[in-house]
Amino acid sequence: MLIDPFKRKISYIRVSVTDRCDFRCTYCMPQKMKFLPRDNLLSLEELERLCNVFIELGVKKIRITGGEPLVRKNIVQLFKGISNNLGNGLEELTLTTNGSQLEHHAEELFNAGVKRINVSLDTLDKNKFKLITKFDNFDKVMRGIHAAKKIGMKIKINAVALKDINDNEILDLVKWCGENQFTLTFIEVMPMGEMGKRRIDQFMPLLEIKKLLEKNYKIVDDPLKTGGPASYVHCNETDQKIGFITPLTHNFCDSCNRVRITCTGKMYMCLGQEDKEDLIKPLRDSDNNDLLKEVIYKAILRKPKGHDFAIGREKKEKFVPRHMNVTGG
Ligand code: SAM
Ligand code: SF4
């Protein structure tokens, strides 16, 4: 069992399998993003071994993320490998995706044990989609979402709340997710990576969305706990759950149960801090996992109390130097 100095049990890992992506969302990475050389990445076999070691250390939930995880070659092989542990320590294997490749992979993923996925979608407007992601792939994403729904996956839509961009679409997103019985989660934009733009100009506090929902629907607090940072309400009219991830306006670090592994084998004990442990050396130095486990145990003891995200009006904005695609969202 992995326990940090604040007595939080670490039972969840997010594993970024690539920093590459087929989109360039304006809040996530710059258009001319420089990606890592492919040779620097852990192989799929190494990623699987790492996941297995974390499962032996008590991790019960694994989320595969990126970059866009489904652009990595032969990625389904990794899902198949990890899913052998489902019911044997591992309780859930899941994925966060932009949906662009779902149409082709939904069935294989479902058969490999992926029953619930998060799909990031900030708008239902095709033109705005292109404006946000820089690619004209709205229809493709819709086909992917519907392919996943058809095969029986439970879908959660993640929408980053963006001032003056999708703030006029909140009720449309709620309606569409309600009609499709998707859970919808809104996320506050986080100051990850230099974007050449001020984050304050993108930032929309989720309290404003909650107030808008209260005006238009009957919503009640929902006790749902997914092991994630979202707090939920239930919307009676649409019979759906709506979540709020509020790293800026309401810190949720007290119940943090996760660490993040990058595609180059670095473990970040907190998304919002710079401290990390390099797992490549202990992974590659020996076929025996004892040293690797020891390194992980020790690093968990450095897990900080919380992030220091802040978005303010100061001239010089503070941000975490990594872009979100590097650590995995
Ligand atoms: N490409 C996949 C996707 O978009 O779902 C997975 C990786 S992406 C980095 C994971 C999540 O991080 C997405 O829901 C995305 O909207 C979110 N994200 C990216 N940059 C963010 C930022 N600066 N603040 C808040 N959320 C961000
Ligand atoms: Fe790619 Fe996801 Fe970042 Fe958008 S949020 S650029 S889809 S990694």
Q: Which key terms come to mind for this protein?
A:
single chain; 329 residues; alpha/beta; TIM Barrel; twelve-stranded mixed sheet; binds S-adenosylmethionine; binds iron/sulfur cluster
What is the fold's blueprint, element by element?
Elements: E1 12-16, H1 44-56, E2 61-65, H2 75-83, E3 92-97, H3 102-111, E4 116-120, H4 126-133, H5 138-151, E5 154-161, H6 170-180, E6 183-188, H7 206-216, E7 219-222, E8 231-235, E9 240-245, E10 258-261, E11 266-268, E12 276-278, H8 280-285, H9 290-300, H10 324-327
Parallel strand pairs: 1-2, 1-10, 2-3, 3-4, 4-5, 5-6, 6-9
Antiparallel strand pairs: 7-8, 8-9, 10-11, 11-12
Helix pairs in contact: 1-2, 3-5
The structure holds S-adenosylmethionine and iron/sulfur cluster (SF4).
Iron/sulfur cluster binds next to helix 10.
